[in-house]
Specification:
2 domains, about 240 residues, alpha/beta
Length: about 240
């Protein structure tokens, strides 16, 4: 099972989807395609890194994996697409292409262009799915209006899966744990009784840290429920 996360646009949450949505549930390594040299695991949780033009080395690594999540940086998407076209049938290595999108119009137009490019490579609609990201909970009932460009393209083309349940709601936990090498699931599933620590410790710093962890866990549990729903929707039929 190999899943690529791709969009011509930056700032749509590709790394968030790789690290917090897919990796904990698929139990798969993250391969980052980005403009840096291949190296050790980075702060976003990547186990392998390649540039977009290192497609041959990337393919070799991918074929050695039972499953993988491929996080394609915006600055490398064009090289990646070009080489995927050059290496005929290489898109068959992927079981699913996840295209994250946020409400800003530029990112919506870039999402449409991304899907059109995937379609031009011969990738069928059932292997392309959008994930609506960074959506305010108060805007859920107006999702089609909020993402009118994406939904308009979907209704006109039927070139991809456009699931209204695949929505990641804004949650402060993503910013709270940005500096930690942990996923939302790591925080939500931490068995430590931080509430008891708040009661029992007399050390002010330890008490403050425990309080912050209580708050983080409450946010993380909410986010995890949301991510479980999105994952179930995205993976349906794959």
């Amino acid at each position: 099972m190999n899943i690529a996360i791709i969009n011509f646009s930056g700032n749509v949450g590709k790394s968030t989807i790789a690290k917090h949505l897919l990796a904990p549930r698929l139990q798969a390594p993250i391969i980052a395609i980005e403009s840096i040299n291949a190296g050790n695991e980075n702060e976003e949780g990547a186990h392998y890194r390649f540039r977009g033009n290192e497609f041959d080395h990337f393919q070799a690594t991918l074929m050695r994996q039972d499953r993988a999540i491929i996080d394609i940086g915006a600055s490398n998407v064009e090289d990646f697409m070009r080489l995927m076209n050059q290496y005929v049938d290489s898109h068959g290595e992927f079981d699913l292409f996840v295209v994250p999108v946020v409400p800003e119009k530029k990112q919506q137009f870039d999402t449409v262009n991304t899907i059109e490019s995937l379609k031009s490579l011969g990738i069928p609609p059932e292997k392309i799915v959008t994930v609506f990201n960074k959506v305010d909970v108060n805007q859920l009932e107006n999702l089609e209006s909020l993402f009118s460009i994406v939904f308009g393209f979907y209704h006109a083309s039927q070139a991809f899966r456009c699931e209204k349940e695949a929505v990641i709601v804004n949650n402060d936990i993503f910013e709270t744990i940005r500096h930690l090498n942990k996923s939302v699931d790591d925080i939500a599933d931490d068995p430590t009784d931080y509430r008891a620590r708040v009661r029992d410790t007399q050390d002010p710093d330890e008490k403050d840290n425990a309080i912050q962890m209580v708050l983080a866990q409450r946010l993380a549990k909410s986010a995890k429920r949301n991510l479980d729903q999105v994952y179930s929707t995205v993976m349906e039929g794959v």
